[in-house]
Amino acid sequence: MEGRNPSVDFKGERRTNATHQSATDPEAKPYRKGDGVGAFLCHSGHALTENRHGLVRCVRVDEACGTAERENTLAMLDHLERRHGVRPATLGADKGYDAGPFLLELERRWIEPHVAIKSGKIDPTSERADDGTWARWFVRGEQRSAAFRKSQRQRRLVEEFFGWAKTVAGMRRARHVGREKIRQCFDLAAATYNLVRMRILMAT
Description:
It is a single chain. By secondary structure, this protein is of the alpha+beta class. The chain is 40% helix and 14% strand. It has a single domain (29-203), classed as Nucleotidyltransferase, domain 5, CATH 3.30.420. The protein is built from six helices and five strands; from the N terminus they run βββαβαβαααα. β1 and β2 form a beta hairpin.
């Protein structure tokens, strides 16, 4: 009689959504954070911080996938403008956000993209070049400006929040099942981080 968990040999096969699914949290998806790192079932957390003091302005928890960072950043920018009437003048981000359509969406919102561009040749005159290629070429040309360099320095403040959330707030490994519960924990972690951050800023 076959049991509930039949033995399956996955040796030599890649982990995908078709072969691996969490028995306790079906919303979690396999995701690989970098080269040489295995894929783990997880959710993706995203945060938007202001670049002066590093206070968190908006957070989101979504499905872990390759486009989640860019999609959720645009959603957070829209929420920030709709809810608080705030539209940033610039947006600093790392090379994970280097995508032509994303840069165009920032410009459509009148936000100057200070996004690190990956190395390699960019030929905007190529017949295959689309509007996104032009955007990447233009942003690369702005990388030497003082404003761009400042945004790249200040964007690291968001990493301080993620480090604090993982170690102090216990978000490295979620203790709850379901994206909605994890989102509530992430919201609470961001609010607590802001209180701690403001206490430090007021004392200086």
